[in-house]
Amino acid sequence: MKANINGVTLKNVIEYRGIETDHAIQADIYLGKMKIGTYDSNARGGPVDVDLLPEYRDHIRRIAVGFFEKFENGFFPTSNEGFGMTIQELYKDTPTEGLIGELVELYDTEKYYKRLTKGGSPVLTIYKKGTERMYISWESEDMMATQRESCEKKYGKIEKIILSLADLQINI
User: Fold this and answer.
1) In this structure, are strands 157-162 and 123-129 parallel, antiparallel, or unpaired?
2) What is the DSSP string of 43-97?
3) What residues in the chain have per-residue pLDDT under 70?
4) According to the model, what pLDDT value does residue 26 have?
5) pLDDT of residue 21
6) What is the rounded distance in angstroms from the CA atom of residue 10 to the CA atom of residue 28?
7) What is the CA 30 to chain-centroid distance, rounded?
8) What pLDDT score does 80 carry?
9) CB contact set of 81 (below 8 Å; sequence gap of 6+)
10) Which of 101, 103, 96, 151 is nearest to 123 (CA)?
């Protein structure tokens, strides 16, 4: 299972330190088993670069528009805090770039979740306070529930609860 949105996934991901940011990514974009483009987060301070094969641009744009109709604030709803608008509004002219940005968030979360489950912690809670995210793993949902109130006071509101890799598979 790979994190995906309607079958769109990132593969061959290269993470590197950029000039403007500590976390930059280059990746191939796949639809099912077919490579349909590339992504570069452009850590030089410019816009992201999403380059799709021409015959897939409209299809991916339709997926993106459908995604933002369902998740107007994105899959991680507090990602847009500070913009003063929904993610859907932010990416209304460039929904494909927004979709791939959401896919990068899913990829990062998947990577972290896989690391945690190897250590025996199958529940991941993502808290958000300001612009900072806090990832806390739990051995069970019951354990998470007993600590929820104290963690929300300390780390902010819950952004997402991930119980399995299936929670990172989005079909619209």
Assistant:
1) antiparallel
2) TTSS--EEEE-HHHHHHHHHHHHHHHHH-TT-SSTTTTTTSSS-HHHHTSS-HHH
3) 1, 20-22, 43-46, 77-84, 131
4) 92
5) 64
6) 6
7) 16
8) 54
9) 128, 130, 131
10) 151
pLDDT at position 64: 92
- Report pLDDT for 52: 97
Domains contained in the chain, number: 1
DSSP 86-134: -HHHHTSS-HHHHHHHHHHHHHHHHHHHHHHHHTT--EEEEEEETTEEE
Instruction: Answer whether 126's CB lies under 8 Å from 135's CB.
Output: yes
Pairing of strands 169-170, 4-5: parallel
In which element (H, E) is residue 146 found?
A: helix 141-155
- Structural domain including 14 reads 4-170
Torsion of CA 143, 144, 145, 149, to 10 degrees: 120
**How many Å separate Cα 72 from the centre of its chain?**
14
What's the one-letter identity of residue 46?
Answer: G
**What per-residue confidence (pLDDT) applies to 33?**
95
142: helix, coil or strand? helix
Name the pTM for this structure.
0.83
